[in-house]
Amino acid sequence: MIGLRRLSLNQATVRNLTAADAIRLCVKHEIPGIGLWRDRVAELGLARTAATVTAASLHISSLCRGGFFTHADADARAAALADNRVAVMEAAELQADTLILVSGGLVPGSRDLALARRMIADAIAELVPVAQDAGVRLGIEPLHPMFCADRCAITRLGEALDLAMRFPADTVGVVVDTYHVWWDSQLAADIARAAGRIAGFQLCDWVLPLPRDVLLGRGHLGDGFIDFGLIADLVLVAGYTGYAEVEILNAEIWDAPADETALKVRNRFADLLC
Description:
This protein is of the alpha/beta class. The protein is built from eleven helices and ten strands.
């Protein structure tokens, strides 16, 4: 099993907290890692965030997010790439393990999935030299197919892996997020094939019923249907040595007391993965 020494709290789980408050929360509850979001980092300031994390002796397991490459307008595509270059520099300054890429859905006004996927591949190819120069690893995250139209046309781990393998392994890997991949009949084979390419491991549970806003339908570990032990074992056998981030997007959890959420995250992780 993974063990609490590799637990990370993704900031999205306590979305209402500032970066500074989320860092303090991790220290208080002996959670050794944190996954940061760019908007909250911007509020605190990049240099101050880096210094605060260092002073707290926390490890930054990820920075979220880059991506959203699929735009119909050339100026919008150029702006997206420019923003991704900035994200790479932010990840380098923070010394994050990976910059997570949520690649983007269908091009507005189009139903052409192949086009969207080509645009994603082309954009990542342009970003790779920037990441190499900065010493940043890009993590391509496949999302559940229900997000294919608007958020991510890369929907299977195998598809993300095929794309990542076009580039050096130390620069481009894949992110295994249990919420997005648990359903896939090819998951075990694809995780095994991803040995050396797993750039991040994120966890939350699949709970029912789904809310009206399906983006916010994730639950605490153990509240739903995902076999976390099985997936974690597969990831470990594939050689992953990084942190395991608990990332829960759920409005009710955001409204709960942050101390209560952090305690539950730690306890559930210990029960299921230690």
